[in-house]
Write a structure and sequence with these properties.
By secondary structure, the protein is α/β, with parallel strands linked by helices. It contains 16 helices and 13 strands. The structure holds pyridoxal-5'-phosphate.
Length: 453
């Protein structure tokens, strides 16, 4: 079975550069083939893999070099192999003494991430299924640390560029939607720290309990980085928990350029990063880091009689006491093994390359005076629209996106900014290189010229 699966996967990955960037045809038929009664008897493995292979070709080719939509994922082969080993040995790492050395591996991988951000020894973290869950646990930790049990007066400060998972997390954590307070931002889409300070004071004067500010280290829309050091100043003066949502951009910290842009991030109370975005790992790998680890534990640990035989935490954390989860997969190997195999330098260089590629695409499009790119890429998102000679601009750009994606060589997505339809290319995948971005620039320019007649 392993050999058959490996041979399918090798072929799949080798074909990625030539595979269509999306295949959205005959989806109903393709899905209908899988709408069947539960089988009483088995099917030969080869046939099953064949079926799965056909299914895998449908939809967006998220693992391919042309996928520039939303925030691309990765899919390092080494991580897939790590998962194969981890699920094969099926050891449990949620409490340390069940698999002390493997739990140490996971703790070490988390420590490596914490070191990236200059976090102290008492920092703790968890590997989550992604940024949404990291943001959720961060908000729960902040709530527990800063508010009384009756917390409904608590208010959270964000900009309108914050990721929707932050609002969703606040709602899941029990806050009414009115708890979300939207701080003005500047033309570069960054939070205005002085406006934050004024809002916090006014809200407090009106009887609310400001307790949390969520800054973005790379917004999803444009990759804007909030002024973290200034926000950290306000947070410490006003006694707010500072959470940095770095689910998209946080791991660019590995590059010198982003490291400079992120100055002050080490003062955040918590940081969410997504190795399944900016470390090229498969979907399902997020991380939450908390500077004072006891805060994370206080928010997530409860006593259970049937767990009384388990050892108290010593050097190695009982991860379940820091997370909503008890049983789960051994995510640590998926993060640790690729870093061991390739070394951190390989990730640094790959991320630097993505920053260069974004800059290159930005410059290519800027050359034409009909493309509008008001946001210089701080990280690896290039957001643009085209000013057509006539007609509804939003409608034109919607059509332009369709035409770009019809090339099947690249796949982009869009967003709305201040009422404008904006197309975005997000360059993150380890399989995306200069050749594909040159091609993307050509495709985009030609599609716009063809359409604007
Ligand atoms: C992707 C993203 C999230 C959500 O992370 P998931 O891993 O998709 O759950 C949160 N914040 C930002 C800025 C993101 O880009």
């Amino acid at each position: 079975m392993a050999e058959t699966a490996t041979s399918f996967l090798t072929g799949f990955i080798e074909d990625l550069p030539d595979a269509p960037a999306s295949d959205l045809e005959e989806l109903t038929e393709a899905s209908a083939a899988f709408r069947e009664q539960v089988p009483e008897t088995g099917t030969p493995f080869e046939r099953i893999v064949h079926q799965v292979a056909r299914a895998a070709g449908k939809g967006f080719t998220t693992a391919g070099p042309g996928y520039l939509a939303y925030i691309p994922g990765g899919g390092l082969w080494a991580a897939a192999v790590a998962d194969f080993i981890a699920t094969g040995i099926n050891k449990y790492v949620g409490v340390w003494n069940a698999a002390p050395v493997l739990a140490q591996i996971e703790a070490t991988a988390i420590r490596w991430l914490s070191d990236l951000f200059g976090y102290p020894a008492e920092a703790r973290g968890i590997l989550t299924s992604g940024g949404s869950m990291s943001n959720f646990s961060a908000i729960v930790a902040a709530r527990r640390a800063r508010l009384p049990e009756g917390f409904l007066d608590g208010t959270v400060y964000v900009t309108d560029q914050v990721h929707a998972s932050v609002t969703k997390s606040a709602v899941l954590a029990g806050f009414p939607e009115r708890a979300m307070r939207v701080v003005p931002r500047d033309a570069a889409m960054r939070m205005q720290p002085e406006a934050l300070r004024h809002m916090v004071r006014a809200d407090r004067g009106a009887g609310a309990s400001p307790f949390l500010v969520v800054a973005s280290a790379g917004t999803t829309n444009t990759g804007a980085v909030d002024p973290l050091a200034n926000i950290a100043d306000v947070a410490s003066e006003e006694d707010l928990w500072l959470h940095v949502d770095g689910a998209y951009g946080g791991l660019f910290q590995l590059t010198e350029r982003a490291h400079r842009a992120f100055a002050g991030i080490e003062r955040a109370d918590s940081i969410a990063v997504d190795p399944h975005k900016t470390m090229f790992l498969p979907y399902g790998t997020g991380a939450l880091l908390v500077r004072d680890g006891t805060r994370l534990r206080e928010a997530h640990s409860v006593h259970a009689d049937y767990l009384q035989d388990l050892a108290e935490e010593e050097e190695i954390p009982n991860f379940t006491d820091y997370s909503p989860e008890l049983s789960r997969d051994f995510r640590g190997l998926r993060l640790w093994l690729p870093i061991k195999l390739h070394g951190l330098q390989a990730f640094r260089e790959a991320l630097d390359e993505k920053l260069d590629l974004a800059r290159f695409l930005f410059e290519e499009l800027t050359e034409s005076d009909r493309f509008e790119l008001p946001w210089e890429p701080e990280l690896s998102v290039v957001a643009f629209s085209y000013r057509s000679h006539a007609g509804d601009q939003n409608q034109f750009n919607r059509k332009l996106l369709e035409r770009i994606n019809a090339s099947k060589r690249v796949f982009l997505s869009s967003t709305m900014i201040d009422g404008r339809f904006v197309i975005r290319a997000c360059i993150v995948s380890h399989r995306t290189h200069r050749d594909r971005i040159e091609e993307a620039a050509e495709i985009i320019k030609k599609a716009a010229a063809d359409l604007d007649t």
